[in-house]
Amino acid sequence: MYLIPIMAGIPLIGAILIFLNHNAKTRGYTIYATVVAMMISALALMITWIQDGSNTWYLYTQTEWMDKAMQAFEILLMVFIVYMCFKYKRRWISLLAILQTGLTLWVEYTIPLVESTHTQVDSLALLMCIICAFIGGLIGIYSVGYMKSYHENHKGVLDRSSTFLALIFVFMSAMFGLVLSSNLIWMYFFWEITSVISFLLIGYTKTEEAITNSFRALWMNLFGGFGFAVAIWLCAMWNHSVQLNEIVASANPMIIGMLALAGLTKSAQLPFSTWLFGAMVAPTPSSALLHSATMVKAGVYLLIRLAPALNGSLCGTIVSFIGGFTFIMTSLMAIAQNDAKKVLAFSTISNLGLIVACAGIGVEQTVWAAIFLMIFHSSSKSMLFEAVGATENSIGSRDIENMHGLILRLPKLAYVMGIGIAGMYLAPFGMLISKWVALKAFVDSGNVLLVICIAFGSASTMFYWTKWLGKLIAMHKPRVPDRDVTRKDEYFSMAVLCAITISLCLLFPLLAGYVVNPIVLSLFGATTDVLSMSELTTMVIMVCSVLIVPAMMFLVTRMAPRDIVPTYMNGINVGDNSHFTDSFGQSKKLHLSNWYLRFEFGRRRLLKPSQILAASVLIVTFAVLLGGVLS
Length: 631
Hints:
Layout: H1 3-20, H2 24-51, E1 57-59, H3 64-87, H4 91-110, E2 119-121, H5 123-153, H6 161-180, H7 184-202, H8 208-239, H9 244-250, H10 253-266, H11 274-278, H12 284-292, H13 295-310, H14 314-335, H15 340-361, H16 364-395, H17 406-409, H18 411-426, H19 432-445, H20 448-472, H21 488-506, H22 508-524, H23 535-559, E3 572-573, E4 579-581, E5 587-589, H24 598-601, H25 603-630
Helix pairs in contact: 1-2, 1-6, 2-5, 3-4, 3-7, 4-8, 5-6, 5-12, 5-16, 5-21, 6-7, 7-8, 8-10, 9-13, 10-13, 12-16, 13-15, 13-16, 14-15, 14-20, 14-25, 15-16, 15-20, 16-18, 16-19, 16-21, 16-22, 18-20, 18-21, 18-23, 21-23
């Protein structure tokens, strides 16, 4: 099928052209053209697949030359990682790269494997391709204008925009290859490319903090990659086959456990969550891409693929526990954050935790909910990251406290944030349908601990989103008006993402019937009716929920008085409702702040105990699995 190499090749060719082009204007046109071609190719593949009868395609059996090229590139990646580790004196990390690359090459050269296909196209793979092409493509468009403003505001950072933008499109190409692979060796190859590209993106500014955080992301993802490589070795030793569908069907606990470990690290679940916190030092397009369309989605994609094998097993129990525990703990830690990107980072990990918990339960209802959560999270979270990045470029800060009254200062960006926050109320857990389905499935499974985690995690999620929204709609005008420096391509990307979020609600019945249900059917061989209310009622509730926040924001701004009324501030108001003169004649500034509960829920208080507990559970689990293998 020629469409697959074309779709994966377009962003790769675009990346080469972008890297070689240092003229900002022509580079921007190259990005626009690459994104359009990427979207068209993804749609063409989907349409062709539908016209063919929507059956799973298994393609490419004879791939000797491609296998050799991948092996050579794997060695180059290993050499690059070793070089960077020695350059920055993180030598021990290079051992992970050497071990996993050596193990996979040893499997390929010494263990005979049955002839198999290397690519599959089904409903889940196509959904991931659409998410990557459209959400990732819009982030690429956004990055054109953003990087110009970023370097205008960060004079001390060397402008390597061509490299940064090229890496984004290499990332997308690798993601296409990953989700379309039916063979673990091919999937592992693209899996490792995403790990290395994320390392480079996070370390873009080359500050000490960026370098430290990039290496943290590298070793954690290499650790997961080592688990992936061990799974490949075990499959080859025991079954002489590395086909993913056969692995799921056999449900070998040790192999499933190793693959689940890889999925947990890539999706930044506890105790591996800190790499995603650290990714916030990178420019916003990198954060948006990692969180919404590529990196973390690769982890939950693999776990959703494994869901039928996780059902009722020890691995499934542990995956669902880690997911639920991550959901509640990172939701609580998000309450204590005032940096908007950190709130988005914690909420991303929290959202992923709920998806991982659903995959761990591994029944039709929870996987149905997980897929919906993944779709809504992709559009809403990428929009929020973009809005925060544009706001930071305009006001010089991403502190939520500095967004006080943004609805009057930068109304367009405030509207975008309002819609994005409304989308996050819907997904993951304020979203009524997914909430009901996930909660019902957890109750039916008898897992009381998960039900408690989700109940309290949902409450804390509502808390931090409401605090942020309250800051945005405050009636406050600064002494000096803010200037919106957001460029047209940035607004275009955010506007389309807003439209996608609202359209997903409007088209909810079609989304359920033609996208999510077929995926569940392909994974489990059957599907169940998971909705207990009419689809029309469901659609109306979701549309009202996603529209009510921005609609109220619009009405508030229209009805707000245009004259500033002086308020009492424990002294003489100087006329701007922000400064006053106290009884000693000294100038004072009024400071309004949200309640962050840092003592109760701060990262310093909760992160270490959470990591220790999650790591202990994983260590005990793999000890039990290893004991079962050796006995």
